[in-house]
DNA sequence: TAAAAAAAGTTGCTAAAGCAACAGAATTTA
DNA sequence: TAAATTCTGTTGCTTTAGCAACTTTTTTTA
């Protein structure tokens, strides 16, 4: 029964994914940078602010190298890590459509290289230029890559309780590689900010998960012992 | 200081929104239905399943009339209301990109009329047909309308504590109309499922909010007394 | 490489949220 | 319109998570 369900799931997954054309973000970025004068590439050092969403509207950014956080500080001063970007990820207000007056910051987690351009550009651009065509055709795929991340995050935050949040996140990380061992992409302090939970309570729960033989942990290397 | 911040915010908001072309979903739906044989319109009675995401991949649906819920049941059997669609909203797996084996259901909250078509369709379609062009041009706007909803939800779920979740949600509802009075779009039972909190605990918190003179409540009519 | 800063790991106490189990009101269905 | 069902409102008890305040370890930086 379990096996049939899994096979069915895999079948749909494969079919679904085959139907989706593969979109190469690096080719797209190269195309953009060489064909259009309205794009720019900038470099950032660790901890610098790459962009903010309230002020920089309609902006589309592609992370060419490095890692970055999308961060908000809530009314009580708590840091919330909303999203975590790695090389080839797309971000910018064009994909967030901010509607509150609480600013969102993109912070360089490591040294970064970022390509900037504007969503509104497709309107202003000469209709015969090849860039225009590329942009319009690629936009859905760019946005979809963000939509997947957003839905993943909603799924995480929908979990009741710290244990469920941790296990859900761990199984997402585990599913991205072969085997049940993976490396946490950020510090435990940041993990708590990402899951919107108290760090001390999280540590306590991780301890329990180890005691219950559900996970093994060596630094940032974690192994899921159950399925 | 407060006033300056608000004025600045409003200014950016207006500028941002002016730059965004207005997209009429009803015209789009009409265009689609009349120009393409691959689309279909179906009617549903209250509580019927409109579609599921795991099986119906790459599907795009437009709610022509009525209201619907996007629902998941978690591992403990809890009902989670992931999203709430009203007339003109766009949904379907094409916008969710399901990646777990937990099925998502779209349920008719009232009688509904829904337009169905496929995201993959743009690939198969004859390149000269006007529908193809319309679809490709409109897709980003269709998706953006979902992205806004997703981000709103993440903002809600990022709140620590029931009181914060309630107040955030209430202020979103209040901001959608003039004045501070609004009507809850669903029952209190469903509201708890939407905010992923215990209903009894939520009722207790609502009572406290009334006692603290932060809200007034008459049935589903709520007034925010503070800003 | 020594000092400083950040992250990891702990703990006791307190506050908040979940659960169960009701009763009464409102709504739906037969 | 009567019966059934769902929704609202409430409460006591229990479990969970948050907070504050530490120590120890690891990583940065001067």
Question: Which pair has the most extensive contact?
Answer: A-B, 49 and 49 residues
**Low-pLDDT segments of chain A:** 1-21
Helix content of chain A: 40-55%
Q: How many DSSP E strands of chain A?
A: 11
For this structure, the CATH topology of the largest domain in chain A is Jelly Rolls
Radius of gyration of chain A: 20 Å
Assembly of the depicted chains: homodimer
Structural class of chain A: alpha+beta
- What is the CA-CA span between the terminal residues of chain A? 16 Å
CATH architecture assignment name of the largest domain in chain A: Sandwich
Placed side by side, the strands forming the largest sheet of chain A appear as 1-8-3-6
The biggest beta sheet of chain A reads: 4 strands, antiparallel
Mean pLDDT level of chain A: 81
Please, could you describe this protein's structure?
Two copies of one chain form a homodimer. Chain A has 227 residues and is of the alpha+beta class. The first copy, chain A, has helices at 2-18, 25-35, 121-124, 130-157, 162-175, 188-195, 199-211; strands at 40-44, 49-52, 59-65, 68-73, 79-85, 90-91, 105-108, 112-118, 181-183, 215-218, 221-224. The longest helix of chain A is centred in the middle third of the chain and has 28 residues, at 130-157. Chain A is globular and about 60 Å long. Chains A and B meet through helix 1 and helix 4 of A and helix 1 and helix 4 of B. Chain A binds a DNA duplex (30 and 30 nucleotides) through helix 7.
